[in-house]
Amino acid sequence: MGKYAPLEEFLATREENTTTLTYEEMEELLGFKLPNSAYKHRAWWSNGKKGGSKFWLRVGWLVDSVVLNERVSFRKALDMYDEATSKQNEEFEEETCDSMVTLDIADIPAIIKDLHILMLEGLLSHDEFEEKKASLLSLL
Fold it and tell me: Which domain holds residue 37?
């Protein structure tokens, strides 16, 4: 098994349908620091072919939400969308919006680059990308 085996084993043995780990918890579990791209780019956490996805996809889990440099929420791939999940997502979105208000203008180019990566990976449509990019550029 690879160096991410402890994360795979942790997720594979979870009985719950969702779990959240801080970066610190993951690094303690793994025994090493996550790569810089996991801290800088949301795309590293995508459920596609790039980044670390193979380490959770292999055991049937998906990344549900990410707060860069803080925490990652995972959910079992077969977990049905229900009212509890919806409430968690709403709370996460509110929290994310609150953190976006304190966004440093210097971060905007990096965010646009990350959004572009998400578009290339098929996680955002071209129109969604352009809309988000325009919204960010209007803050400059």
Answer: 5-79
